[in-house]
Write a structure and sequence with these properties.
Blueprint lengths: L1 E5 L4 H13 L3 E6 L19 E5 L5 H11 L3 E4 L6 H6 L1 H24 L3 H6 L1 E7 L24 H20 L3 E6 L1 E3 L8 H10 L4 E4 L5 E6 H14 L5 E4 L4 E3 H15 L11 E4 L14 H7 L7 H14 L1 H7 L2 H11 L2
Parallel strand pairs: 1-2, 1-4, 2-3, 4-5, 5-6, 6-10, 7-9, 8-12
Antiparallel strand pairs: 9-11
Helix pairs in contact: 1-8, 2-4, 4-6, 7-9, 9-11
C-alpha cells in the first residue's frame, strides 16, 4: 500500500510524512519541487528508510506525475504542495497562480486518469485529499461567528484567492467526474520545521538573534492557531473516515491576537533562554500594516468532531511551549534555512 504526498518537504507536509511513517508501514512517495521553503533536512531521520520514496519535481510536470501514479499505484493522494505566504503573494502573485491553481488542475487531471484505470476494491478505496486554508473565507468581524464549512468564500489576498480557486477545482472534479475527493480547510499552523518567514518562527528566531520583532499595524489581528501535529492527526482521520465530497474545517480552538502571540513567545524565551540585555519584549517593533490585511479568522471545527470524533490534543499553551523549545534545540536547522535569499526577503518585507 502506498500514498502519494505532494509538498512533503515543506512545513506541514514534512510533519505529515514523519507522523505517517511513525505510525504506519505504508510507503510514502513524496513529490516536492524543493522551492525556498522545501527542506530535505526536515526529513533527515528518514534517510535510508525504504518506506520513504522522495522525488524532486513539480506537480505541474504532468509526465512526471503520470509516471509516479502508474509505477506506484497509490491508494490516495494527499495534496499539500502550494505557495502559502500572503506577503509573498502580494509582491509576486504569478507563482501562486501557477502552483496553486494550475498545479492543482494538473494534479486533478492526473488523478482522474489514474482513478479511471482502477478496478474493484482499489477504485473504491482511492481518495484525493486536498489540504486548504481558512483564508478562503475572508475576514471576520470581532463578534462574528467562526467560519463553518458553509461560509461564503471571500478571499482577500492573491494567496487566498489562489487557494479558493483550487478548492473550487477539487469540488468540480468530484461533481463532474466523480473523483472521490476530500477537502480540509485549516487555521494557522505552528510547530517544528516552520520556515521563519511566518509570525511565530520569525519572532523566535529574531528574538534569539537580538533583532526587532516586527508586528504589523496594531497587532490586534486575530487568528485561530493549530499545532501542526494536531493538523496531521486530523488529516489522517479525514483520509480514513471522511465522507467523499465533503469539506472539514480543522482548527485549534485557540483564537489569539498577533500581539499576544509575540508577548507569549517573549515570556517563554525569558524563562527558557534569558537574555542578559533584558526582556525580549523590548525588541517589539510595530511596522506598517500589509495591504488588505484580514482582521480575524476563526474556525468552527464542530463538524469534524461530531462526524469523525477528532479534536485537537494541544492547547495553545502546550503547543507554543513545545514549539519554542524545538527552535531552541535545533539552532543548526535554523542556521541552515537562513540563506542569503531569505535574509533579503525579510529586509524587503520589514525594512532594516
Amino acid at each position: 500500500m502506498t500514498i502519494l504526498v505532494t509538498g512533503g518537504a515543506g512545513f506541514i507536509g514534512s510533519n505529515f510524512v514523519l507522523d505517517w511513517l511513525a505510525g504506519s508501514d505504508e510507503t510514502v512517495v513524496n513529490l516536492d519541487a524543493l522551492s525556498y521553503a522545501g527542506n530535505l533536512r526536515n526529513l533527515a531521520s528518514l534517510q535510508g528508510d525504504a518506506r520513504h520514496v522522495f522525488v524532486k519535481g513539480d506537480i505541474g510536470d504532468r509526465a512526471l506525475v503520470d509516471g509516479l501514479l502508474a509505477s506506484h499505484r497509490p491508494r490516495a493522494i494527499v495534496h499539500f504542495a502550494a505557495e502559502s505566504h500572503v506577503d509573498r503573494s502580494i509582491h509576486g502573485p504569478g507563482e501562486f497562480m501557477r502552483t496553486n491553481v494550475m498545479g492543482t488542475f494538473g494534479l486533478l487531471e492526473a488523478a482522474r486518469g489514474h482513478y479511471a484505470g482502477l478496478e474493484g476494491g482499489a477504485k473504491e478505496a482511492f481518495r484525493f485529499h486536498h489540504v486548504s486554508t481558512d483564508e478562503v473565507y475572508g475576514s471576520l468581524a470581532p463578534d462574528a461567528p467562526a467560519f463553518t464549512e458553509q461560509h461564503t468564500y471571500e478571499p482577500n489576498s492573491p494567496y487566498s484567492a489562489s487557494k479558493a480557486a483550487s478548492d473550487h477545482l477539487v469540488r468540480a472534479w468530484h461533481h463532474t467526474y466523480g473523483l472521490p475527493v476530500l477537502t480540509t480547510n485549516c487555521s494557522n499552523n505552528y510547530g517544528p520545521y516552520h520556515f521563519p518567514e511566518k509570525l511565530i518562527p520569525l519572532m523566535i528566531v529574531n528574538a534569539l538573534a537580538g533583532k526587532p520583532l516586527p508586528i504589523y499595524g496594531d497587532g490586534l489581528q486575530v487568528r485561530d492557531w493549530l499545532y501542526v501535529g494536531d493538523h496531521c492527526s486530523a488529516i489522517r482521520t479525514v483520509l480514513a473516515s471522511g465522507r467523499i465530497g465533503e469539506t472539514y474545517n480543522v482548527g485549534g480552538w485557540n483564537e489569539q491576537a498577533n500581539r499576544d502571540i509575540v508577548l507569549t513567545i517573549c515570556a517563554l524565551l525569558d524563562e527558557l533562554r534569558p537574555d542578559p540585555a533584558g526582556p525580549y519584549a523590548r525588541l517589539i517593533t510595530h511596522v506598517a500594516d500589509r495591504p488588505g490585511h484580514d482582521r480575524r479568522y476563526a474556525i468552527d471545527a464542530r463538524k469534524i468532531e461530531r462526524e469523525l470524533g477528532w479534536r485537537p490534543a494541544e492547547t495553545f499553551a502546550t503547543g507554543i511551549r513545545k514549539t519554542v523549545q524545538w527552535y531552541l534545540d535545533h539552532a543548526d536547522w535554523v542556521a541552515d534555512v537562513q540563506s542569503g535569499g531569505y535574509r533579503e526577503w525579510v529586509k524587503q518585507q520589514y525594512g532594516a
